[in-house]
Every structure is written in C-alpha cells, then in structure tokens.
Amino acid sequence: MKSQVYGKKNVSTACVSALLIILMFSVVAASARTYSVGVKTGDWAGFGDISFEWASNMPGYEQPPFQMNMSWMDMEVLDVHNSNVTVRSTVIYKNGTKETYVTWGDIVTGEGNLSTGIIPSNLGPGDPIPANFTFGPEFSFKVSINGTVTRRYACANREVNYVNITYPIVYDTVQFGTMNISLYWDKKTGIACEEIMSYATSYTHDNMTYYMNMSILWRMTATNMWPAVFSVLIDGQEFNAVVESNSTISDFDFRQDQKEIRFSVTGPGGTAGFCNVSIPTDLMRGEPWVVLVDDVERIYIKSSNGTHTFLYFTYTHTTRNITIRGTWVVPEFPTLIPLLLVFAILAVFIIIPKRRTPKHPFDTHN
User: Fold this and answer.
1) Contact 188, 122 (CB under 8 A)
2) With 0-12 CB in 10 A as exposed, 13-18 as middle and 19+ as buried, what is 169?
3) Domain count across the chain
4) Could you tell me the residue range of the domain that residue 102 belongs to?
C-alpha cells in the first residue's frame, strides 16, 4: 500500500510541476553572493515551441489533465525595483482557455514566488543559483550553473547558462523512478530560455505494475530583449536582415531573382502581432515596397537611416506568411566584376605581340 500511495502522490507532484512550468520551482533560499538583475520593466518573452508526452496506467491518471496541453506561454516584466522583480505569466492551452499569474521575487536573496523563470545575470560555471529547487516539502535542493554554451533562441545566437539535474524518486529507501531536468537561461539577462523535463516512475501492487511516464519541453521563440537576425550571403558578402516582433519567426527566405523576402509568423490566435523589419539598403530597396500578409497587401510604416530601411506592419495572430517585395536587389555579380573582365580581355590583346608584315623587296620606303 505504501507504494501505491507513493505513486499517486508523485503523479500529483509531477502534474503540479508541469502545470506551473515557468513557476515550477518554489524560491525559498537566500545567498550571500553578490548578484545583479539583468531584466528591466517591459521585457517580454514568448514560448511557442512546446511539446508534451504522457503515458500512464495509474488509476485516475490514464489521461493527462488538459492543463498539460499548452500551446503558448509568455512572461512580461511588470516592474523592477532594486533586486525585486514582478512578472506576469500567461499560459494558453490547446482547448482555448487561458490562465494568468502575477508573481514576484528577489533576484539577490531568492525570496518570493517568482521561481527560476528569471535568475541573476552574468552567472558562470560553478556559481550557485539563489533558490532552492523544491518539489513539495520532501524534495528541496540547491544547484549551481554547470556551464555556458551558445544556443539559438528567438532567432538569435545567445550565450546561455545551463543546469542538468538527475533526481532519483525514492520512498522508504526504494527508488521508484527518476526525474531529469535541463534548464537554460540567457546569460546577459538571466531570463529562462528552455526547459526539458522527463519523469518516469512505477510501482507494483497486487501483482500489477503501474507506471507513469511524462516529458515536456518548452523553448523561447519570441522576445523584445534582442532582435531576430537572419544572414543573407551573396557572392561572399554577408547582409543581416533584422526582425523585431512579438511573433515566432520561421522559414526566413531571401529570393534574389524575385526581389523578395519571405518568412512566417506565429502567435496565440486572435492576439495582435507586429513586425518591424530592418533591411540593408545595399541588399534590397523598394520604390515603392510591397508588404503582403497571406498574399493580401498590407499598409506599412516606412522609415530609413540611410543604411537600412525599416518597415513596420501589424496583423492578427495565427500562422501567417509574410512577403516583402522590393524593386531592386544586390546583383548576383557586383558591377566591378564585368569591369575587371573587360580589363582582363584588353590585357590579353596588349600582351600578344603584333605580327609584322613582311617587307616587299621593291618597297623603297624606310
């Protein structure tokens, strides 16, 4: 009977952990180390890459609760006062329901209920996180940064700190399963970028083996804290197109022959989306520009700083295809190359000696 009680108890723990996601860890510990806050009021991040798997034959837990099936999460910094940060987190589920949480935390002491959605900025390998990772009263432990790597989040390469945790599920000296967690935070800002969590437990009761396996992944796909950068390489020359947006940007494609830039935007259905696209004038120009959203021409606001053109436009979120069409793009071969070819041909004629015409024997001219 102990095993059965244990199994149900930990299923509940796992459900609560996955439900909270960004808020999944209680923050209760303090630290004497000096820390700094890397976020500011108005900073925002969206998590559109979410996947979830569930397999269980435990009575009452054969199917996952609807709260596990999320389609979108985001977090917005409402206020930063000294080391206290207040955050609003929104979760949208696949059945269309939405939940919003407002939490706060002290980044320096770890107090509050903000959890590890935001940690101190500029930590490095070995630096402790000023928070206890807590799964109920029985499971509470501290962790330190394992390392720093470069990964791509919200269409930009970022230095991120990571922690890998393997935690045995033990009851009465018997291990019933294992929880594995990998967490990644942007080093400069301290904001959470990705979580990969798996949980597997089983027990035997009355000659019947019960199990519950769960895995969940969420990854940042949009933010206003750094722009999405897309590199275009033409004849060895690199051009960077930059997109600032509250949408997930994907499938970026520069079509030189059609004088077009294409990409897709995705966001929580029915909400307002925007893009501010920065295009190098040496790559592409428009007199005028055409902006299409799902092949329908859209009004845009244009500005320029001499080296880049900025096109701002809005739309209603779902998955949409964006086309930006200009009237000129950088030639496939720079104009200098044909000129060099002409000089090369002339050089050949200069180098080849002219044939001398034989002198006529009766020619009296010197």
Assistant:
1) yes
2) buried
3) 2
4) 2-223
